[in-house]
């Protein structure tokens, strides 16, 4: 059941990203990066290339 919840959470994140990408792709990347850096949410491993190593 926990695997199902992880898949559902990833789908929800992807749906939000796809909606926001219609606004501005740079803004989407900015929001994802800021959300991860501030600890607002954790990105799935598929998005590890968005991680900044400062």
UniProtKB/TrEMBL annotation:
InterPro entries for this protein: DUF4126 (IPR025196)
Regions that span the bilayer: 12-34
The entry's keywords: Membrane, Transmembrane, Transmembrane helix
Family matches, as Pfam families: DUF4126
Domain spans labelled DUF4126: 13-52
Record protein name field: DUF4126 domain-containing protein
């Amino acid at each position: 059941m926990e695997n199902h919840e992880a898949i559902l959470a990833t789908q929800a994140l992807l749906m939000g990203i796809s909606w926001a990408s219609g606004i501005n792709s740079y803004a989407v990347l900015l929001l994802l990066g800021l959300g991860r850096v501030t600890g607002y949410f954790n990105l799935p491993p598929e998005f590890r290339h968005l991680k900044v190593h400062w």
